Amino acid sequence: MAPSKSLFILFLWARSLLLPLPLLAQSQSIIPVASLLPPDSPNAGATLFEYERLQLTEELVQRVREQEKTAKYGSFFAFGDLDSPKAMLKNGSCKLFPGDKSWPKEDLWDAFDNLLGGALIPTTPIAAPCYKNWGLYDSEKCAAVIANWTNPYLHTLILVNPYTNEADPTSVAFQIFQGRTCLPTSNLNGTCTLGGYPAYAVNISNVAQIQLAVNFARNANIRLVIKNTGHCYLGKSGGAGALSVWTHSLKDIELIDDYKVGEYEGKALKLGAGVTVREVYLAAHRHGVTALGGICDTVGYAGGYIAGGGHTLLSGIYGMAADQVMALEAVTADGKKITASQMSHPDLCWALRGGGGSTFAIVTSIIIRVHPKLPVTLSSFSFNSTLVGKEAFWLGVRAYFELFIPFTDAGTYSYFWIYNTNGTYSMDMKPFWALNHTIASFNDLVQPWFQKLSHLGIPFTPATKSYPEFWPAFDEAWPPGSGAVGGWTTRPGNRLFPRANWEDPVKFNQTFSAIQESSKSGYRLGGYHQTPRNRAHVSNAVNTAWRTAISFLILGINVAGDATPAEMGAASAELEDALEPWRRIAPNGEGGGSYLNEADIGEPDWQSAFYGENYPRLRELKDKWDLEGVF
Ligand SMILES: Cc1cc2nc3c(=O)[nH]c(=O)nc-3n(C[C@H](O)[C@H](O)[C@H](O)COP(=O)(O)OP(=O)(O)OC[C@H]3O[C@@H](n4cnc5c(N)ncnc54)[C@H](O)[C@@H]3O)c2cc1C
Ligand SMILES: *[C@@H]1O[C@H](CO)[C@@H](O)[C@H](O)[C@H]1NC(C)=O
Ligand SMILES: *[C@@H]1O[C@H](CO)[C@@H](O)[C@H](O)[C@H]1NC(C)=O
Ligand SMILES: *[C@@H]1O[C@H](CO)[C@@H](O)[C@H](O)[C@H]1NC(C)=O
Ligand SMILES: *[C@@H]1O[C@H](CO)[C@@H](O)[C@H](O)[C@H]1NC(C)=O
Ligand SMILES: *[C@@H]1O[C@H](CO)[C@@H](O)[C@H](O)[C@H]1NC(C)=O
Ligand SMILES: *[C@@H]1O[C@H](CO)[C@@H](O)[C@H](O)[C@H]1NC(C)=O
Ligand SMILES: *[C@@H]1O[C@H](CO)[C@@H](O)[C@H](O)[C@H]1NC(C)=O
Ligand SMILES: *[C@@H]1O[C@H](CO)[C@@H](O)[C@H](O)[C@H]1NC(C)=O
C-alpha cells in the first residue's frame, strides 16, 4: 500500500514538526515514550528481553501530563488502579464505537501515535485492493491476494503479503466472525467495509507501547483486542471498533542453559510473544532440545496457543504445552508490567496457562522448560469404502478406536480425518505419531489394527518412517505453511472424550455410535487420540477435561459462502445440534468438555465445557485482574 503508507508517514512527520514531544531527550522530534529499565526479572529467574526493558513509567506519564503540548491528553495515558475501577464501566456500560460523540478526535489519535513513536496503523483490510469503493483498487494486488488467500503466511507472519509486502496487522485466518465484509473477490461491484476488523492496530516493538495502548483503551473506554497471528477460529483476534495490540514483531528467542525455578533445574527457552510454533521447534532443535508444540507451524506460541492450554504432539509423554511454562512477563489491565511466576502473582501465572487468550493480561514473553531429543516414528495412510463397502469401512475405523487405550498408554498421538463424500467414506491418518518408538515397536503396537484392516479386505499402504529426533519428523510431516486457512464456509466445534468412555464396553459402543452417526449425517470429522495428563504435576488453568481425555474430536459443518444472517444463525443452531450427541455421551463434569481454542462459539454451558473445574476460580481472578473488562 505504498501510496497511503507513505502519506501516513508524511503526515506523522508533519505532525512532529507541529507537535514536538521532547519527553526523553531534547534532540529528537518524534520520541517514543519509554524508559530503559534494568534487565533483571528475579521473579522469573531470568533477564528481560531488550524490548521488555523499554517500559512506560509513572514518571513518564507525569511528564506527558506536564508537557504543555500534551497536557490535555495526559489523562488518557495514566495507569489504572485494579482495586478501584471506574464505576461506569463496572456498571456494564458499553465501550465507544467510531462515530460515537465521545470517540477520540484525530488530535488525540495523533498524540497517541506520537507517544508510540509512529506505530499506530489505521486498518486497511487486506483485500481492499479488490474493491473500488475503498479507493485503493489494484487488479494485480487483488489477484495476488486471491492467489495467496489460503496461505497462512498471508494473514500472519512472513513478508509475503503481496499488498503491503509486510506482515498484515489486522488480517485474520478465518473471516466468518470478521463478518465477511471484505473478502477477496474479482467481482468489481462489491463493497469493502471494516466490519469486524479493528479501527487501529499498534505495531508493537516494545512493552511501553503495549502499556500505552492498554492505558489509552481503558481511559478512552475503547475496546481492546490482541492479534498475534490471527489464527483464532472464534475471531477473538479481531473486533469491530477496537484498538488492536499486534504482537507479531516480538520475535526474540533465548536459550537459558541452567534455569532454576522451584523444583525445576535444567534448560529453558525464553520466547517473545510473537514467536510461532515453527520458530520454537527450530530454535529448540538448534539448541539440542525439544519443545512442546502443536501441528500448525504458523500458530503463535506464547499467545493464544499457551493461553488455551496447547495440545501437542508430545502430550503422551509430557502433557500440555501450558504445563511447560514456568514464568511469564505480562502487561495487566492497569497498564503495569508484571512477572507472573511461582514467586510473583502465582494466581495470574495459574490463569494465564490455560484460562484463555486475551482475558487476564497481555503476555510479552514466556519461559518454557524443554526436553531431550527423542526419536519419532510416523505412519501415514488412508483407506476408504469404495472397494469394501461402508460396513467394512466402519469396522476398520472401529478397530482403530477400540485400541485407543493401548495406543495412548504407549505415549502415541494421532491426527486423522474421516470424510463422507456423498456416502463414500474415507479415513486419512496423517500421521500416526509415535514418539520414542522405533518402526519395530510401532508395528508391534498397531499390529492388531492393521491385521483387522487386512482381514476386512481394506486396501491400505502405510508409509512408515522413523526419525532420530523431533524436528526433521515435524518438518517433513508439516512443511512450512502446510496448514491451509482463509475459509469462510465451515464452522468447527469439538469435544474432549474421556478415557472412561473407552473403559466401559457399553459406553464405548454408545460413544462410537455417536461419532459414526455424525459422519453418516454428512459432517466432517477430524481428531486425535491423545492423553495430555498432568505429567509435569503443575497447577494451572488447563481445562480439567484434558486431563482425563483419550480423544479430541472436531466436527465441521458447511456454511454457504454468502450465507445471510438468518442462514448463519441456522448454521449455528445446526452446529449446536450436531454436537449434542457428543455432549450427551461425554458430558461436562463427567470428564467431557470442549477445547476453547477450536470451539463452537455457541457451545452451551461453556463455563464448564471450556474450563471444567477451573471456571469458578477463573471468574474470581477475572474480577481481580480485570474488573473493568479491558480485555
Ligand atoms: C490450522 C490450525 C491448527 C491448529 N493446531 C493446533 C494444535 O495442534 N494444538 C493446539 O492446541 N491448537 C491448535 N490450533 C489452535 C490455536 O492454538 C489457536 O487458534 C490459538 O488461539 C492461536 O493463537 P495465536 O496467538 O497464534 O492466534 P491469535 O488469533 O492471534 O490469538 C488467539 C487469541 O489469543 C489472544 N492473544 C494472542 N496473543 C496474546 C498475548 N500475547 N497475550 C494475551 N492474549 C493473546 C488473542 O487476543 C486471541 O484471543 C490450531 C489452529 C489452526 C488455525
Ligand atoms: C448503573 O446503572 C443503573 C441502570 O442504568 C443506574 O440506575 C445506576 O445509577 C448506575 N450506577 C452507577 C454507579 O453508575
Ligand atoms: C502470491 O501470489 C502471486 C501471484 O499472484 C504468486 O506469484 C506468489 O507465488 C504467491 N505467493 C505465495 C506465497 O503463495
Ligand atoms: C456489476 O454491476 C453491473 C451493473 O449493475 C452489472 O451489469 C454486472 O453484471 C455486475 N457484475 C457482477 C460480476 O456482479
Ligand atoms: C512493524 O514494526 C516492525 C519493527 O518492529 C517493522 O519492521 C515493520 O515493518 C512494521 N510493520 C508495519 C506493517 O508497519
Ligand atoms: C480408495 O481406496 C483405493 C484403494 O486404496 C484407492 O485406489 C482409491 O484411490 C481411493 N479412492 C478415494 C476416493 O480416495
Ligand atoms: C456429490 O453429490 C452432489 C449432488 O448429487 C454433486 O453435485 C457432487 O458433485 C457430488 N460430489 C462428489 C465428490 O461426487
Ligand atoms: C524412551 O524409550 C526408552 C526405551 O524404551 C525408555 O528407556 C525411555 O525412558 C523413554 N523415554 C521417555 C522420555 O519416555
Ligand atoms: C458393542 O458393540 C459390538 C458391535 O456392535 C457388539 O458386538 C458388542 O456386543 C457390544 N458390546 C456391548 C457391551 O454392548
TrEMBL record:
Oxidoreductase in keyword set: yes
Domain FAD-binding PCMH-type, residue spans: 194-373
InterPro entries: BBE, FAD-bd_PCMH, FAD-bd_PCMH-like_sf, FAD-bd_PCMH_sub2, FAD-linked_Oxidoreductases_BP, Oxid_FAD_bind_N
MF GO annotations: FAD binding; oxidoreductase activity
Stretch forming the signal peptide: 1-27
Alphabetical UniProt keywords: Oxidoreductase, Signal
Domain of life: Eukaryota
Membership in a protein family: Belongs to the oxygen-dependent FAD-linked oxidoreductase family.
Name the UniProt record assigns to this protein: FAD-binding PCMH-type domain-containing protein
Organism in which the protein naturally occurs: Hymenoscyphus albidus
